[in-house]
Amino acid sequence: MTKNKSALNVMKGIDVPETVSKDAAKRFLSKRKKELKVDEAVEGILSGNISILSAAITLIESNLPKHQKKAAQIIEKCLPYSGNSVRIGITVVPGVGKSTFIEALGLYLINKGHKLAVLAIDPSSEQSGGSILGDKTRMEQLSAEKNAFIRPSPSSGSLGGVARKTRESIILCEAAGFDTVFIETVGVGQSETKVHSMVDFFLLLMLAGAGDELQGIKRGIMEMADTIIINKADGNNIDKANLAKKEYENALHMFPPTESGWTPNVLLTSALQNFGIEDVWLTIKKYLELTKKSGYWLQRRNNQAKYWMHETILESLKNNFYNNTKRKKLIKDFERKVQQGKISPFEAAHMLLNKYFSK
Amino acid sequence: MTKNKSALNVMKGIDVPETVSKDAAKRFLSKRKKELKVDEAVEGILSGNISILSAAITLIESNLPKHQKKAAQIIEKCLPYSGNSVRIGITVVPGVGKSTFIEALGLYLINKGHKLAVLAIDPSSEQSGGSILGDKTRMEQLSAEKNAFIRPSPSSGSLGGVARKTRESIILCEAAGFDTVFIETVGVGQSETKVHSMVDFFLLLMLAGAGDELQGIKRGIMEMADTIIINKADGNNIDKANLAKKEYENALHMFPPTESGWTPNVLLTSALQNFGIEDVWLTIKKYLELTKKSGYWLQRRNNQAKYWMHETILESLKNNFYNNTKRKKLIKDFERKVQQGKISPFEAAHMLLNKYFSK
Predict the structure, then answer these.
(1) At what angle do helices B296-322 and B277-294 cross, to 10 degrees?
(2) Shortest CB distance from B318 goes to which of A224, A250, A314?
(3) A160-164 long-range CB contacts below 8 Å, 24 or more apart?
(4) Sign of CA dihedral B229, B235, B240, B246
(5) What is the CA radius of gyration of chain B?
(6) Which of A8, A234, B207, B301 is at a distance of 20 to 30 A from A320, taking alpha carbons?
(7) Do A314 and B314 touch (CB under 8 A)?
(8) Where residue A250 falls among pLDDT bands split at 50, 70, 90?
(9) How far apart are alpha carbons B178 and B172 in whole angstroms?
(10) Chain B neighbours among A 191-250 (CB < 8 Å)?
(11) In chain B, at which residue ranges do the beta strands (DSSP E only) sit?
């Protein structure tokens, strides 16, 4: 049992080659005689200790105030050592096997001497009970690599909260020496916008043929992509993939120019046959070169930092208003009245707000 | 002087055939002996009195609490009479002359017996000092029509506030008997998402040739369009327009399916030669038929009402936090520190929030 073994090693404080599952990290936190101390955590992270990194991320994900306080202190101390990775958003159309692609690109990077962290924002993970087991099973080779760290989506909380936690985890991963960070999502909801706000480069992973497999992807995501990748361009799929490439290129050509000055492109890959994977990395490197030279990269990172400050404020203002049992019931009542046209949305809002602010 | 004449007529309480400018409405409010009363306003609106409608919208736009209170009461009383118009969002790529198109489509509708209100959300209007004069000058024919009401964007406030005011104005226009409402924007910012959340149908107005004239349009807007219109398909432009139509059709074909079940299309028009205008209206009618039959139309209207309730709440929570002179300075300081990497965005947010909530 891989899981037990890694948990055991964690308990012993040994830096295990595999990534540490959430459960193991939780046990690490709860079963240790003394709780993870801030300085101990920072030291561990900076020395590249994966178990401690994982435990610290578990603190970030915890909703206990004392954990949150500790997490905040760890983040502040890691901050000066962060920022040095390439942050890549990878969004997959539902149904496209993301794991084979991420594993292929990941292994390529590891072989080139990179250290790779794979984080996820998966709004569906709450329902499915987390995807770590699935991810780790599917990315068996990558998860066995010493220089790879795979961490699933936090399994509870609002999208805003989950995204913020992932954004905070990036800082710790970078401080732990990971020079490449993947943030993966399934392109079904609002999470892509959040991911777009924490990465340098945005990949959209698709299949050949723009028909049925696009069902479920949210409109607007295509226009965020810096590169569209058509995976599984192998076997009987090659002709279809080539056709799709041409069609997507034409479509991209009709889009308004990007702010970055970059011209989005379409690449064919076969993760199975390890075809086209290097091109993906070369494309990302080209993008980085262009945007670092133009100053766009830095400007975007700065704007993203500002964005997350305001986003965190907003999230907190919202929580303070909405996370109230009595108010929740009232809101439901007003929603119903608004939908029935009995009261205007504005009046309903004002009545709810008056109660809130008069307290 | 058109403006003076209409202002004069307003003062006399006469229902003028022309639309009433903002200035005139303001004067109407300030110079009358008695202020506009709620019941008087509602009665006037329901009887289709344009001057009173205009004055009531001015109340909506006012930031004075007593005006806002009155506006809210007027809206509530008009609510049962609202909802019966076709709400159409029209977004133009900057540089595309919107007025000729809106005038052509507007006059077509007026001639078919419709009553048309044209509202605008223009985030740039604050800088340019409002666009009413421009709009009215450019849409001379339409603004002279008895059954047309042209109202520019509120010229101050945040985008959220401006959008909310426009959304509220729709209710009054519908209660005044306008069966068609255009909400126009320039596709440069966040306003399109807001417009999308208050209309039944979303038009994107472009020019032939997808090159330079796309500069400035925001990515993601194309994927919101229910119909793309290529205007100025006349004279030397015809070949270019036909080519662009085909290219956009191919691009649209590559997009994920819409939630509505509608397949977005591309139409050629020449507002100048009055060509293709009828097709635009037939397309909208077809869309309405499809979505009303499927239940999507009603579901969307309901969701929009809910959206605006929560949007108004959010706007108010934000205002309460951000509209504070002392805090504004502090926020600027923290923004700087965050950008310099001296403090994490999250810690900065927490420090600002602690101060806010501890009061």
Answers:
(1) 100
(2) A314
(3) A160/A194, A160/A311, A160/A314, A160/A315, A160/A318, A161/A315, A161/A319, A162/A121, A162/A123, A162/A191, A163/A121, A163/A191, A163/A194, A163/A195, A163/A198, A163/A311, A164/A308, A164/A311, A164/A312, A164/A315, A164/B346
(4) positive
(5) 22
(6) B301
(7) yes
(8) confident
(9) 9
(10) 210, 214-224, 247-248, 250
(11) 86-92, 116-121, 148-151, 180-186, 201-207, 227-231, 265-268
Higher pLDDT, B23 or B356: B356
Give the model's pLDDT for residue A100: 86
| Percent of chain A predicted with pLDDT > 70 | 80
DSSP per residue over B17-58, as a string?
SSPPPHHHHHHHHHHSSSPPPHHHHHHHHHTT-HHHHHHHHH
Query: What local confidence, expressed as pLDDT, does residue B2 receive?
Result: 34
Residue A229 corresponds to which tokens in the numbers above? 């990748």
Higher pLDDT, B17 or A306: A306
Is residue A276 within 8 A of residue A270, CB to CB? The reply is yes
**Which sign, positive or negative, has the C-alpha torsion A334, A335, A337, A343?**
positive
Tokens of B247: 């290219």
Which pLDDT belongs to residue A128? 42
Structure tokens at B124: 């740039």
Tell me how long chain B is. 359
Give the domains, in start order, of chain B with CATH numbers: 1-80 (no CATH), 82-304 (3.40.50.300), 308-358 (no CATH)
Give the angle B229-B234-B240 at the CA atoms, nearest 5°: 70
The whole-angstrom separation of Cα B101 and Cα B205 is: 9
**Residue B222: is its pLDDT beyond 90?**
no
Confidence of residue A155 (pLDDT cuts 50, 70, 90): low
ipTM over 0.90: no
**Contact, B221 vs B192, CB < 8 A?**
yes
Place of tokens 């947010």: B349
The pair of structure tokens assigned to A336 is 């119903």
Quick one: CA torsion of B310, B314, B316, B319, rounded to 10 degrees? -160
pLDDT > 70? residue B89: yes
pLDDT at position A17 over 50: no
Nearest to A240 by CA among A230, A228, A250: A230
pLDDT at A162: 84
Candidates A60, A317, A318, A347, partner chain B, best to mutate (most B CBs within 10 A): A317
Residue A136's pLDDT band (cuts 50, 70, 90): low
Check B250 against A248: CB less than 8 A apart.
Answer: no
Query: Which residue's entry shows tokens 């959209």?
Result: A204
Quote the tokens at residue B225.
Answer: 């369009």
CB atoms within 10 A of CB A59: 26
pLDDT of residue B153: 77
Searching chain B, which residue's CA lies closest to the CA of residue A172? Answer: B344
Quick check: helix, strand or coil at residue A151? strand
Tokens of residue A26, six digits: 């939780």
Q: What are phi and psi of B270, to 5 degrees?
A: -130, 105
Burial A248-279 (b: 16+ CB within 10 A, else e): beebbebbbbbebebebbbbbbbbeeeebbee
Answer for the pair B36, B58: CB distance below 8 angstroms, yes or no. Answer: no
DSSP assigned state of B275: B
Chain B (47-86) residues lying within 8 Å, Cβ to Cβ, of chain A: 72, 75-76, 79-80, 83
A171 close to B (CB below 8 A): yes
Nearest residue, CB atoms, B224 vs list A75, A220, A308: A220
Q: Are B234 and B272 in contact (CB under 8 A)?
A: yes
